[in-house]
Input
Amino acid sequence: MSGAGRVPNLKRVYENPARADGFRILVDRLWPRGLSKDKAKVDLWLKDIAPSDDLRKWFGHDPGKWLEFKKRYHRELATKADLMAVIEGRMREGEVTLLFGAADAEHNNAAALRDYLTKRASP
Output
């Protein structure tokens, strides 16, 4: 099942929400430090789609571990069909933005999740 060829947006949850974000899904296991739920404007907190605690701690946002992190995380995502279906269903309905708290916009679980979703949407 795919998101009809759509690719979700990525955005740091600390950035101001915008109408263009569409449906905003926080994909971190932990709530972002210092951010109120009202200000975050999160439509859905899908914390169980986040990497396991062991994988998250192993990665530690080290860009040198990025490729291995993505492989391991993609293996975890392959076991979460029900959660993937939630995201892909929203993607079929319109714009989706995956929200993350990490300072590194390129090396984080939301970016790895978007890569996984993109591969699933490809024929």
